[in-house]
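Researcher: Here's the sequence for the chain we discussed earlier.
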Amino acid sequence: MRGALHAEWTKLRTLPSTWWLLLAVAALTVALGAAATGSVSTDQCPSPAECHEDTVKLCLTGVWLGQAAVAVLAVLAMSSEYGTGTIRVTLTAVPGRARVLAAKATVVTGAAVAAGTLAVLGSLLAGRLLLPGNGFGTAALSFTEPPTLRAAAGSVLYLALIALLSLGTATVVRDTAGAITAVLGLLYAFPVVALMVADETWRERLQEFAPSSAGLAVQATQNLDALPIAPWPGLGVLAAWAGAALLAGTAMFRLRDA
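Model: Thanks. This is the structure I predict for it:
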């Protein structure tokens, strides 16, 4: 397994797109989070406390955009080998296909966690700097509050699960464009379709099972009763999607010739 991990890390870090995508994860997440945080103020509120703004979730808005770069990175980790034909060399060097996929999952998840941690910390720091100037005061965002810690850790886990979901999808589809389209459609189109459903019961049910809207519930720190699904169960829904994608990918990977 050590040799498989070393090989997969070597392949991932030597892909020209890897470092740009990891940079994009951090840059897009922080930029959108800072833009969202800078756009709100207490001017229209009787007092900062009566604004009822979920400042933590607002700071972490950029995760919604940063996930796209994570998805592309994870897809390329698998589909690029099919595109170049090097998958046969990989399977010759490491005959155990489950071991190959496990090594890829470990390396991709580690990269997503590293970039996601920097992105989340940068977003919260940006919020800490911007919120006082918008009238919220320094108490609007505390790094030591349990809800803030849960939202931050949950956002990093969210990005890691997106990486696993994308890797599993790419293993099934094998084509770069097809896998990216499938994953981004699941992350961005599914929630939009759910919002268009007229029946309120079905609309909430679809929001509970959409991987992105359910998973991002972990960022909420206020009005939790109004959420379609609670924070940790929502992340569990995304984990189920990722697990199903990996199981399907493992099955297809073992059944195919390459």
